[in-house]
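Title: Prediction job returns without error message
Component: structure pipeline
Severity: low
Priority: P3
Assignee: unassigned

Description:
Job completed but the reporter wants confirmation the result is attached to the right record. Sequence as submitted:
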Amino acid sequence: MSVEEKQLLGAYLLWALILVVISLISLAFIYLGWDSMLNQEDYVNGPFYLLMGIAGLGIAGKIAYDMSKMRAQKEEREQKIFTHLECVNCGWKLEREFREGDYVGRVSPNDKCPKCGSSMRVMAIYTRVKEKRA
């Protein structure tokens, strides 16, 4: 397991713990509200406790839904890094996959212009996200 995967797993476990705590507190609020309304002890705070509990469960549910959606999106994406090259003489443009050592402004010794044979300069480095089909 890589360091990035361990960090991601730790983040998910932390959020799961937070969701459990929010859910338990929300259930406690619902119990307090329901109990105080049934026993006719407190008509003012009872509905407030119920509302807070239901809102807390809604928030926990929304966070859980967003986390599952984010995880699914991360697994569905495939990224590739590309380098945009331009000839220093004639301005011919070329795109290729990124190679180690590329940086913007570098004159690439390995890439030659197909038109005039001059060196090519790195003009941009960017990624393209390709969505995987299920």
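Comment from assignee: result matches the submitted record. The mean pLDDT is 86.
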